[in-house]
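Give me structure tokens for this 108-residue protein.
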Amino acid sequence: MTDISTHPLIGKWRITEMELWDAEFIDLIEPGYIRFDPSAGGEFVFGAVQRGLDCHYGPASIHFTRAGHDEMDEVSGDGEAQIEDDATITGGIRFHGGDESSFTARRW
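Here you go.
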């Protein structure tokens, strides 16, 4: 894909469901979301977690990695998202050495 700005996942997506956490936790600080930018970056926010993303774009999917800090501890992980026939996205978020959760989101 040469023009990332036309990728179907570019934009902000409202996280509506996660395998490990309920809606109350997803929206703990603010409404949970994941955002993919044409600059190959992005971020996700849910619960008390906010992370920047380094994105790698496929034709109808995105794989992302991230690194940062959580309460002074270094954390990293990865994940992916893909577009579904109903125009939602599904994917997974993995914390290195920790939790893994699937998610569903709709365009915001």
